[in-house]
Amino acid sequence: MRILEQHFTLSYTYPVFFERDVFHPACQRLASLFAQAGAKRHKVLFVIDSGVMDATPSLERKIVRYAEANREVMALCEPILTVSGGEECKNRPFVTDKVVEAIRIHHICRQSFVVAIGGGAVLDAVGYAAAIAHRGVRLIRFPTTVLAQNDAGVGVKNAINAMGRKNFLGTFAPPCAVINDSLFLDTLHPRERRAGIAEAVKVALIKERSFFDYLYSNRHDLALFDRRAEAEMIYRCAALHMEHIAGAGDPFEMGSARPLDFGHWSAHKLEEMTDGRLNHGEAVAIGMALDSLYSHHAGMITKSELQQILRLLEDLSLPLYHPALSRLDVSVALAEFQEHLGGELCITLLTSIGSKREVGRIDRALMTRCIHELEQAFGTERFHPDRVETVPTTGNAIDGSHFILHQHSSR
To answer: To 10 degrees, the CA torsion angle through 120, 121, 122, 127?
Structure first.
């Protein structure tokens, strides 16, 4: 028998910038990224979430003016491509096909850029298109929601839904850079803005007690969308998320453990069961409540810790129950999550606030009991996704200030 064995290592490095009003003529953040890619005019294809365009009517005009002011490093592909946002853009191949077709029409090559501006779903779909065209073209992400800025937008994954399964088709393709522009958050509907906080709670619960304490101490300011509290939350959550990707030794999830998916095994199923009426952050909040309760009954966290977790979620106006939860088949949902992992079942549970453990077995009867307890405790409360109707303008904008995180991982 003859064997040839190949081994090589790929290194990925990308920055995550925290800015405000990136398309202001005085801001050179985006232009500098193009300049660093080589002394030439780079074709740039902008793909923008239609919801973002509706909320910021001046955005297209600002981008055109920005491109004219920086024509020595960027050649804007016009017209700017607008795609439908929300989870629906991942449910059909239309958006991905539209982006791939635009890449072909504008002759976007591996020395060009695709700039995706939108929520997590649009970033997923556009990122997937950029990853499969020419085996990968350069992508810059502009997350425009809290959820995307503190979690999905800073990661290395792209995906679309297919065959009735969430994120069934996807790639691991790190972006060239991520730019978190806080100006976009000012236009969000309160429900979207609130749902993004759920992922910050998730990261704090499994990674860092001090971050949880920050969220708990500032929960009322966060519920009112205080800008300073929100900016700190996003920065710290993104930093912990990136630290995990680079430091956990498995950025491309070749193993079974996915500790950043705390509360997600049921959340994914709840999103499917409600046809997206329960958004991702809301579903994750319910999933965390469920798995925290299970962790308590399994003797892993104390009653006071459980109460603190539930109080935080409640005070942030996040749901702890939805009628779909009582229709959830625990065995089916766990089996589908195991298939999604691609290996043995691995569920993340809490051993304390800020500490977790991966387990390969779930007591179905106990989990079902936990579902019933959540229904009894919170099922009489009607789910009001829009209970906060306006965005208070507490706090001050952090104009002129910026932060940078650098992501580095090897494969």
So the answer is: 80
Q: Report the predicted TM-score, pTM, of the whole model to 2 decimal places.
A: 0.84
pLDDT at 248: 63
Residue linked to tokens 């020395």: 111
What residue type is assigned to position 202 of the chain?
A: K
Cα gap 95→89, rounded to integer Å:
6
DSSP-derived pairing of the beta strands 403-410 and 11-19: antiparallel
Residues comprising the chain, all counted: 411
Asked if residues 277 and 385 have their Cβ atoms less than 8 Å apart, the reply is no
Query: What amino acid is encoded at 22 in this protein?
Result: V
Read off the pLDDT band of 13 (50, 70, 90).
Answer: confident
Task: Determine what percent of the chain is predicted with pLDDT higher than 90.
Answer: 73
CA 365, 367, 368, 372 torsion-angle sign: positive
Q: How far apart are CA 61 and CA 64, in angstroms?
A: 5
* DSSP-derived 3-state class of residue 179: strand
First-to-last alpha carbon distance for the chain, in angstroms, is 29
Contact 138, 37 (CB under 8 A): yes
Q: How far is CA 94 from CA 78, 99, 126, in A?
A: 20, 9, 11
- CB of 265 closer than 8 Å to CB of 347: yes
pLDDT tens column, 185-236: 999 999 989 999 999 999 999 999 999 999 999 999 999 999 999 999 999 9
**β-strand pairing of 403-410 with 42-49:** unpaired
